[in-house]
Design goal:
Elements lengths: L13 E3 L2 E3 L24 E9 L2 E7 L3 H4 L5 E8 L8 E5 L6 E4 L7 E10 L2 E2 L6 E4 L10 E7 L5 E6 L12 E12 L2 E12 L10 E5 L7 E10 L2 E5 L3 E4 L9 E6 L6 E6 L10 E8 L7 E5 L5 E4 L7 E9 L8 E6 L11 E6 L6 E6 L10 E8 L6 E6 L6 E4 L7 E9 L14 E2 L10 E7 L5 E6 L10 E11 L11 E5 L6 E4 L7 E10 L10 E4 L13 E4 L5 E4 L14 E8 L6 E6 L6 E4 L7 E10 L2 E2 L7 E4 L9 E8 L4 E6 L10 E8 L7 E5 L5 E4 L7 E10 L2 E11 L25 E4 L12 E8 L4 E3 L10 E4 L7 E10 L2 E2 L9 E2 L10 E7 L5 E6 L14 E8 L12 E5 L5 E4 L6 E11 L2 E2 L6 E5 L9 E7 L5 E6 L12 E10 L13 E6 L4 E4 L7 E10 L2 E2 L6 E4 L9 E6 L6 E6 ...
Antiparallel strand pairs: 1-2, 3-4, 4-7, 5-6, 5-8, 8-9, 8-10, 11-12, 12-15, 13-14, 13-16, 16-17, 16-18, 19-20, 20-23, 21-22, 21-24, 24-25, 26-27, 27-30, 28-29, 28-31, 31-32, 33-34, 34-37, 35-36, 35-38, 38-39, 40-41, 41-44, 42-43, 42-45, 45-46, 45-47, 48-49, 49-52, 50-51, 50-53, 53-54, 55-58, ...
Length: about 1550
């Protein structure tokens, strides 16, 4: 049995070797047999286009055949192609078995050839119709063959003629753009011999005859040199194969100038001339010519010809001390070269010249300056060369900038300078001996600005989005700006699809950051080609334009709807829609198809759409529309990125009228046994204007029509009577439009008087098989209808145990199951049902069980998609992870799928692209590796789980091949080499982290500490410098002095900036500070002032002090001098200035050296606003002072604050008075001295004491008033005052003291004071002792009462003796009674032995009264002392024994100072023997004193340390303690 071939349009067969088989896919020559029951696709694929992808590839794209031509399911496509014009060549076929594929890449094609490409679809019945052939040319390639017949011939010493024939045109592989002529030389490079290109030129092809022989002259070659010449043909893609190298040698020429001309052995009669061969002989040297003559005398010329081997000549027979001019030149066979000249003096050996002097500058330009100078001594030889050296602020090393040969020059034009650069120049002279030392440098000068050196290099443009392009470039270095940088100007304009500029004017944007290396152009048109050029701009102007860079913005959705939209109704349910194309500049990409949106205006505006999946169909038919309904229709186009804009305005169209639908809401509100009233509403689908209604009814089950009646459209109720009781009747209602009667609504009614609401249905029953992710089906059992047929069911549901929500749809009462749609996956639901009849709704049924919908694929796509290149073959894809609740119940198997593909003009479907799955719902990034370099990729991310994939993100495009460096510069080191310069050194990033070619480095530096405070509201800003990629060191100049910087580096490439290096910190060296600020003067007098200032604004280091210098502004022989003084603070008081003289003060701050000075002038004496001088100064001499009187003048601008009183010694020869108008005679050894200063405001007199003046000296006085502005002129005294002598001041002064300072007054005051003090002390003593003595007397009395009668008699006798003797006293060892001063401290004996105290049990031996000497009353209080020459008094005798040891040393000292003439010693006359006997007696520790309260006749006597204390009876003569018995 023969089986049909699945590839054929019509089935075909052939037999071979008795086997029946399908033929191979070569269809043109086969015998076809048509089978009417089977058909291949009858139409070709639509929208077939193609374009060249490369010089050997063509990319094609298509859409499936139209639906009516497919004739079944499309299984794939057959693509065929062959060279255009080669119709006899068989087709090449490609079988595409993926029916979803919409593009194909044809490979291995011939370069720059036209191809015919066709495609057909096939189904299971065969291959369909092929498209018309599309003519597509592959892209250009490089030529495969070199030019032929290459010939080279030298025509002179610097040029050669080259001839050649073009290569075979079939092997050029494109449009011949011309030929490259290259001259090569062999050179040793790194120890190897290599061919180095020395010269190259391009030659356009011949336009007259492209195959004819061509020739050209290659100039600029080295003289007398060997070259190898090649010729190649090139096209736009690149250079072709070069021809074989053809050797050629340029012709010889005259030699260059000789070198190293100098002289030796110079004498009066001879000299030796020496030289070296020329640097470039330009041929074979044949000899030298030496000529010489007496300078400026040509008739003395002599010439010598030498061989090529001679390099010296001795010239004799010269004239002594004569200047000679020498000239030496070399020869080849062509001729002599340029001569080298020099001048010397015979007999004088040439020496080194002296440096030029007096350098001056003029005509400063951007690239040159005129240098004027005075030549120095020429060293007895002419100057052969002037060498100009320069030094810049960036390069502190002197370097040669130009050399000029002009022996007699005094003005040089120095070229080779850089614009807007600060220079210093110096000059040195060179003669035959050598070079002089450099001159002193010129003053610093700055060349003027010029336009920037060049435009930014390596300008590249990359599309970022449909509206943005990123422009990148290499920034200019600081020295390349040639002035103050303004920034970069980016100019861009749209290009037509043909490659020509559009009519839109170009636009420009200025980037002010001169260190920037990228910028994003925004607000562009989608899918539009742009041309971008750049230039750098400074204050002078802009550089030349950069090279053109072109890029197309990304594809986007169409920004405009199709034009000429039409919609026409063709029936009551169909509308045909037609439209035109979208304007080209609004397509924004490849149109994949169209969508027609339509919505009924009166039905809730539910919007529907129909997709037309090809870009070649511009019509479609909308079906299944509602009848007699107005629709709004709009059309949009879509690309692979999404839907474009809708067409505007919406097209209004109405479908045709038709028969109506059934009336709605039919019910029976009133029913009895014999009557039923029916009501209804307008049909839900009127489909036209309702003209009438028809109501019919019959007994249910009966074929006989009981009743039929028509009603106008306004009547929608009818009462049927005469019905049979308890029977079912069937009522029908029909509506009518212009086109006829429509559908009928039939309902039943039961005639009864016992109708009731229906019974609730049973609870909904749900089985697991009826549960899906988005829907649940349940069923129920109806309840009783209450003798009223059910009209509908109402369903309510609740989600996750929330509130009950009714479903909007009414369920047909004949149904017992329902499917709830649009549910959320993995969510719990419950349902309940309510039945409704004519009387109302029933109760709700029982709730169903809680059921959960099944899990589903994610319904939400990811957001925040970002794609960042990390290397030249990999990118990092990042997105925002979905929350757990968005995975629709299947988060455990969730993950993310990354789809990526190369972006081309015809991108394939995403389903056929590579993909990478990342498992885990919390993952948010992945790295795509091993991508192809220099390609644009499109990346999409979608979530997925085991239930399926979720929605995909919009595609994000990224260019692979450029990635920012991932490594930072290494080994960054910073060293301060001066106060304003830091030297940086670093190593490039590791090669593996550079990610392409490094274009340069950015240096970031920021001040982290500065010696000077920053102004309020300002902060330090980070500065940036850019250096080239070849640099590994750089100097940061013009930095702040003594300032700490934080420095970081990064490398950048075409993709952008890499990471910064770790910061390094460096501090510049200290520098000299700036000038101090606000130099000011205060407290200015005639001879002194105070100068103060503020610290410098720029400290530039630690200020160690200030140098203050002052001198008279105008030179004066008498007192002109300069004074320098170092201070550590900011204030200095200056004394001993000349009066009314102007001084110039300068102040310089010091760090490591002194900085610039601030200066100001000030004049001593009155200032502006000072008071007017006082007048009428008079002096009055008194015994102790000088009284000064004056009359005040006006106070000036402010009130008088006080006066300065100054005095001056009048020397011999000075007049005795000084006029106020005539300055006093100034003597070098006499100056006015301030003796007093008042601050009490206005005064008219002042007193100066002689004490502050020198005695016996004649003084002149002057008075100066002052206010806050300054001092007045002084007023001088007319006469001088002679101060008294020193003797007079010491004694005579006392005679004239006031009475209160006289001697008599002071002595009287002292005596009175002593008397008062003594009286006060006596009173205090009596008061303080009385109580103590009273207690002691009481105790003594008690002891005496305890005595025997004999003891009392002895005591009475003793008392009697004491009354009639010399009295009671204190005995000492020498028999004298001494009186001390009351209240003085007891004096201790010089004897170191402690006294022995013996307590007397009874009265001591009674001495003879004659042998007892009495002390004074005060002495009676003293204790016994062993020292016979000492006398002491103590207030508390009881404490003597206990304190005697401790007071011993004090008694010694004071006993020496005892006065032997004290008036108490007048009474001392006590025997030594008695004293000695008492010394052995222990003193009594109890004392008594007399009181008035004692009983009469009592007497107590005790001996205490040699002191007798007697307490007498009343009216006795015994003295009280402290009082003399003689008083």
């Amino acid at each position: 049995m023969l089986k049909p071939c699945m590839y054929c349009t019509s089935n075909c067969y052939r037999c071979r070797q008795n086997r029946i088989s399908p033929s191979p896919p070569v269809w043109d020559d086969q015998t076809r047999v048509e089978f009417p029951l089977y058909r291949a696709p009858s139409g070709p694929p639509v929208g077939f286009v193609g374009s060249a992808r490369s010089m050997s590839e063509i990319i094609t794209q298509w859409q499936p055949p139209q639906e009516e031509h497919r004739n079944g399911q499309i299984l794939g496509y057959i693509l065929r192609y062959r060279l255009f014009g080669y119709n006899n060549v068989p087709w090449s076929y490609q079988n595409i078995t993926n029916e979803a594929q919409r593009n194909f890449l044809i490979q291995e094609l011939i370069t720059w050839k036209d191809y015919i490409v066709q495609i057909a679809a096939f189904n299971n019945m065969g291959v369909g119709v092929y498209t018309e052939g599309a003519k597509i040319k592959t892209k250009e390639g490089v030529p495969e063959a070199p030019p032929t017949n290459v010939q080279v011939k030298a025509i002179n010493s610097t040029a050669a003629q080259i001839t050649w024939k073009p290569p075979n045109p079939q092997q050029i592989n494109g449009i011949n753009q011309g030929y490259k002529i290259q001259a090569w030389q062999r050179r040793h490079v790194d120890g190897e011999e290599r061919d180095i290109e020395r010269r190259m030129m391009t030659v356009p092809p011949s336009l007259i005859d492209p195959l004819a022989e061509q020739s050209t002259v290659l100039g600029g070659l080295d003289k007398f040199a060997k070259f190898n010449v090649t010729v190649l043909c090139f096209t736009d893609p690149g250079d072709g194969v070069a021809s074989q190298m053809m050797p050629v040698e340029t012709l010889d020429d005259v030699p260059d100038e000789i070198t190293a001309l100098h002289f030796d052995d110079v004498s009066d009669r001879s000299v030796k001339v020496l030289w070296a061969p020329p640097r470039f002989a330009n041929g074979v040297l044949t000899g030298y010519t030496v000529r010489y003559q007496v300078k400026d005398r040509r008739e003395t010329m002599k010439s010598f010809n030498l061989t090529a081997d001679d390099n010296e000549l001795t010239v004799n027979q010269l004239q002594a001390t004569t200047h000679y001019w020498f000239e030496v030149c070399a020869w080849t066979r062509v001729g002599s070269g340029p001569p080298k000249t020099a001048t010397i003096q015979s007999g004088v050996e040439p020496v080194l010249p002296h440096a030029p002097t007096t350098l001056a500058l003029s005509n400063i330009e951007a690239f040159s300056v005129v240098l004027q100078f005075t030549p120095g001594f020429d060293g007895n030889s002419s100057i052969t060369k002037w060498k100009v050296e320069a030094q810049t602020a960036r390069n502190m090393t002197w370097f040669t900038i130009c050399e000029i040969s002009d022996p007699d020059a005094e003005t040089l034009t120095v070229t080779g300078l850089m614009p807007f650069t600060q220079y210093r120049l110096r000059l040195s002279a060179t003669n035959v001996v050598g070079s002089s030392r450099p001159s002193d440098p010129t003053k610093d000068f700055q060349t003027i600005q010029a336009k920037p050196m060049h435009a930014p290099f390596n300008v590249t443009v990359r599309a970022m989005s449909a509206l943005q392009l990123r422009v990148r470039w290499i920034p200019l270095q600081q020295m390349e700006w040639f002035g103050n940088p303004r920034g970069y100007n980016v100019t861009y304009r749209q290009m037509e699809r043909t490659g020509k500029p559009s009519k839109h004017p170009p636009r420009s944007v200025m980037i002010e950051d001169h260190t920037a290396n990228s910028h994003v152009l925004e607000g562009l048109e989608e899918w539009t080609l742009y041309e971008v050029i750049m230039n750098a701009c400074n204050d002078v102007g802009c550089s030349l334009d950069s090279g053109l860079a072109m890029e197309r913005t990304r594809e986007a959705v169409p920004s405009y709807g199709p034009l000429h939209v039409e919609a026409n109704a063709t029936s009551s349910t169909t509308v045909v829609v037609r439209w035109g194309e979208i304007p080209p500049h609004h397509r924004n990409g490849q149109i994949d198809g169209y969508k027609v949106y339509y919505a009924a205006t009166e039905r809730g505006m539910q919007v529907l759409y129909k997709t037309i999946p090809n870009n070649s169909s511009f019509t479609t038919t909308l079906t299944e529309l509602q009848k007699f309904v107005v629709y709004h229709v709009q059309v949009l186009a879509y690309t692979r990125l999404g839907n474009g804009a809708l067409s505007t305005p919406p097209i209004r169209v109405q479908t045709f009228e038709d028969t109506p639908g059934s009336p709605s809401n039919v019910s029976f509100p009133d029913v009895t046994f014999s009557m039923a009233r029916i009501i209804w509403d307008v049909p839900m689908d009127p489909n036209g204007e309702i003209l009438a209604y028809q109501v019919t009814y019959t007994l249910n089950g009966s074929a006989n029509l009981n009743y039929s009646r028509e009603f106008p459209p306004s009547d929608r109720t009818f009462r049927a009577t005469g019905l049979m009781p308890e029977r079912y009747y069937s009522f029908s209602v029909t509506a009518q439009t212009r086109l006829g009667w429509g559908k009928t609504a039939s309902v039943l009614v039961y005639t009864t008087n016992n109708r009731d609401r229906p019974q609730a249905p049973s609870g909904p029953q749900v089985s697991r098989s009826q549960i899906q992710a988005h829907q649940i089906t349940f069923n129920w059992t109806p309840g009783r209808d209450g003798f009223a047929p059910l009209r509908y069911y109402t369903v309510e549901m609740r989600e996750n145990e929330g509130r009950w929500q009714p479903l909007p749809e009414r369920v047909d009462p004949t149904l017992s199951s329902y499917t709830a749609l649009g549910l959320r996956p993995y969510t719990t639901y419950q349902f309940r049902i309510q039945a409704t009849n004519d009387l109302g709704p029933s109760a709700f049924s029982r709730e169903s069980i809680v059921v959960r919908t099944l899990p589903a694929a994610p319904a939400v796509g990811v957001g925040g998609l970002k794609v960042v290149p990390i290397t030249t073959t990999s990118v990092r894809v990042q997105w925002g992870a979905l929350e757990t609740g968005m995975w629709n119940g299947d988060a455990a198997t969730g993950g993310y799928r990354i789809l990526y593909q190369q972006l081309s003009d015809f991108a394939p479907a995403l389903q056929s692209t590579p993909k990478t799955d990342v498992m885990g719902i919390n993952e948010n990034s992945v790295v795509l590796s091993d991508l192809q370099q220099d390609r644009n990729y499109e990346i999409v991310v979608l979530p997925f789980n085991s239930q399926g994939p979720g929605p995909a993100t919009p595609p994000t495009a990224v260019y692979v091949g450029e990635a920012v460096p991932t490594g930072e510069p290494r080994g960054v080191d910073a060293t301060a080499i001066s106060s304003t310069e830091v030297r940086l050194r670093w190593k490039p990033p590791k090669q593996s982290s550079q990610n392409g070619e490094i274009l340069g480095y950015k240096i970031f530096y920021l001040v982290t500490w500065s010696p000077q405070a920053l102004e309020p509201g300002r902060k330090f800003e980070e500065e940036i410098e850019v250096v080239s990629a070849t640099a590994t060191s750089h100097s940061l100049v013009f930095l702040d002095k003594f300032t700490e910087y934080r420095i970081q580096l990064l490398a950048f490439n075409p993709a952008g900036d890499g990471p910064r290096s770790a910061p390094v910190t460096v501090k510049t060296m200290p520098g000299v500070p700036s000038a101090p600020l606000n130099l000011r003067f205060s407290d200015i007098t005639m001879q002194s002032l105070e100068v103060s200032w503020d610290p410098p604004k720029l400290l530039n280091g630690e200020i160690v002090g200030y140098l203050v210098t002052y001198e008279t502004t105008e030179e004066n022989e008498k007192f002109s001098k300069q004074v320098k003084q170092k201070v550590s603070n900011t204030t200095l008081r200056v004394q001993n200035l000349e009066e009314e003289v102007t001084y110039t003060f300068t102040v310089r701050a010091q760090t490591n050296d002194y900085g610039p000075a601030v200066s100001a002038n000030v004049t001593t004496g009155p200032q502006d606003g000072s008071p007017v001088a006082p007048r009428d100064l008079t002096l009055t001499k008194t015994l102790s002072s000088v009284e000064i009187h004056w009359v005040n003048g006006p106070s000036g601008r402010g009130p008088i604050l006080g006066y300065l009183i100054e005095a001056k010694k009048r020397e011999n020869g000075e007049p005795s008075f000084i006029s106020n108008r005539t300055p006093y005679l100034r003597l070098d050894d006499s100056r006015w001295t301030k003796i007093e200063q008042s601050r009490k405001g206005t005064m008219k007199e002042f007193t100066v004491s002689y004490h502050i003046l020198m005695p016996s000296t004649a003084y002149l006085f002057r008075v100066i008033a002052y206010n806050k502005y300054g001092i007045s002129f002084p007023v001088y005294s007319k006469d001088s005052i002679l101060t008294p002598s020193k003797l007079h001041l010491e004694y005579g002064y006392l005679q004239h003291k006031p009475f209160y300072r006289q001697t008599w007054f002071m002595v009287s005051l002292a005596a009175t004071s002593i008397v008062i003090i003594v009286m006060v002390i006596a009173v205090l003593c009596v008061k303080s002792k009385s109580y103590k003595y009273k207690q002691e007397a009481q105790k003594t009395l008690e002891e005496s009462m305890a005595m025997s009668i004999d003891e009392r008699q002895e005591l009475a006798l003793e008392l009697y003796r004491s009354r009639h003797g010399v009295g009671t006293g204190t005995l000492n060892s020498v028999g004298t009674l001494r009186s001390g001063t009351l209240g003085t401290l007891g004096r201790k004996s010089t004897n170191r032995h402690q006294p022995v105290s013996v307590h007397l049990g009874k009265s001591p031996p009674r001495p003879s009264p004659a042998s007892v000497a009495y002390h004074s009353d005060e002495e009676s209080l003293k204790c016994y002392d062993e020292n016979p020459d000492d006398s002491s008094v103590t207030e508390k005798p009881s404490e003597v024994s206990s304190s005697e040891a401790s007071q011993h040393s004090e008694s010694e000292n004071e006993s020496v100072r005892s006065d032997p003439h004290s008036f108490v010693n007048h009474y001392a006359n006590v025997n030594d023997s008695l004293r000695q006997s008492w010394k052995k007696t222990k003193p009594v520790r109890n004392y008594s004193s007399y009181t008035d309260s004692e009983p009469e006749g009592s007497a107590v006597m005790s001996l205490n340390g040699g002191q007798i204390i007697v307490n007498n009876m009343a009216r006795s003569r015994a003295p009280l303690p402290g009082f003399s018995s003689f008083v």
